[in-house]
Nucleotidyltransferase, Ribonuclease H (Helianthus annuus), 671 residues
Amino acid sequence: MVSERGIQVDPAKVEAVMNWQEPKTPTEIRSFLGLAHYYRRFIENFSRIAAPLTSLTRKNVKFNWGPKQQESFDILKQKLNNAPVLTLPDGMEEFVVYCDASHTGMGCVLMQKGKVFAYASRQLKVHEKNYTTHDLELGAVVFALKLWRHYLYGIKFVIYSDHKSLQHLFTQKDLNMRQRRWMETLNDYDCEIRYHPGKANVVADALSRKEGVKPNEKLGVTEEQLSYDKDGILRLNGRIWVPVYGGLRDVILQKAHSSKYSVHPGADKMYQDLKANFWWIGLKKSTATYVAKCLTCAQVKAEHQKPSGLLQQPELPEWKWEMVTMDFITKLPKTRKGNDTIWVIVDRLTKSAHFLPIKETYSSDMLAQLYIDKIVSLHGVPVSIISDRDTRYTSHFWRSFQQSLGSRLNFSTAYHPQTDGQSKRTIQTLEDMLRACVIDLGGSWDNHLPLVEFSYNNSYHTSIKAAPFEALYGRKCRTPVCWAEVGDVQMTGPKIIFETTDKIVQIRDRLKAARDRQKSYADLKRKPFNFEVGDKVLLKVSPWKGVMRFGKKGKLSPRYIGPFEIIERVGSVAYKLNLPEELSSIHNVFHICNLKKCFADESLVIPHTDVHVDESLKFVEKPVSIKDRQVKKLRSKYIPIVKVKGDARRGPEYTWEVESTMKEKYPHLFQ
């Protein structure tokens, strides 16, 4: 009907539709669709809504009226009853066409003066389901032009699409045969294609985005395999088919993964549990995706994959004691001289080392004086020094001291001791030798340290295929156990200089071969992986308490915290993170092996204010007060213990600790 308001449906026809009884045969469905189809221009998404009914009118399809058909029948009646009033065409105004396509159908809207003139939609044909996204979107445009040719031919109008590349269609050079055929149709019209984001294209894009419109999902099975039970539930071999709409799949996945009866199973276990009762296309993929996005699983589950990041090696030195590494061995038994620490300094080329006994309380200026006396006086000033981030190395005094000498400080990546692997391996050997000396010879360890250093520097080193002493001085060292005398008579004058230089060249070649061999072996157990700036990652932390055994969690604390945003890439395998104020005491550059991609969309389960980690990335809970005292008898000893209250955010937690240990660590609690 045409009135001054516009074009609207005939009320008599609407009444006939509303009184239409539920179809019992395909013929009755065709009759209903014939009447409804007459007003399809008033119904947005008509083909999608009518799809369940249309499917029953095909040949060789068994008539089975189910919940989907009933819902489609009711929606069409409701849409016709509430059909909008369409605007009348005005020849003076420009038409606007909105087009969109999805994997199920095409939809378009013809508008003028901001008001809808007509809706149109249809399902995809069998061959069209194989089209690329570009061809589908272009096909929707051609569908609209052919349908409304009598309105659009000979006038200028604008086409809006949410496929951005279509706006460059008329300048595109490489076209397939289908696109060339469609271009001939487009050339008949005076039109301009403009980009309109899908979420802004609220009318035509409803075909693929509108809620309440159920997609015609491909089930991937024959109809003989499907059956309805007495409750009208579609099943496949006894398993319930879960539709894609309504959020039912998300509810089932959540219950199967996060409930107290499931407790976060892995993807494979969860899939096996689900497939026994439920079924939908892509169930296994949906399960794996859901588990991958679970923040709780990401925080607490151990990694069973190769660590990320291939081995990165520092450059080879050109000369002896040009590049060195240094580290401390601390917490050793205190000797009569008061020493409880060893300062280990190793040359990266010859592998020769100095082991200097010191006290842990040595200040930076005392270390600087010892460094001048024992290292610089013997070997000169190194070009570069590799060390960890010990406060004595990162102090302003030590930095200024090395800068004045002209040495470059290279600090290892935080919480990645493998950066200074040479010092760590030397320390391991040194500790083994000291243990043997103390067991066999007795006495204080610092009395044996000079001989241990002598033995280490005269032992064969695999990577350089010589002893460090021989690599350093160009000749073997004479030891108390000499199988062949080594004296000056063997090598004198220019010959020893030539031999020393030649040995350095050989040592560098051997080191390079050893490095290449080590890298090839190490990379077999690693995987290449990169993050991008802006990615969200989780940070690996130690699940053990760093200071006390406080709290009920202990070892059950999360393995990862976060997520945090990557703000910069540092080198090949390190990244700088945007850490919150609560973690400001931690150096914010981390090796990639300590990071894990965060796929979760939800916010943090554990707030940053509830996380307490020390500078070693270990969980810490500080004591608040002493609540009780007792004396515990252990064999023949009586040990005083105290009951300590912790500062847990989720309520007070108490534990019994040894009183002497508590007094040493937290003397303020006993004042």
Remarks:
- The radius of gyration is 39 Å.
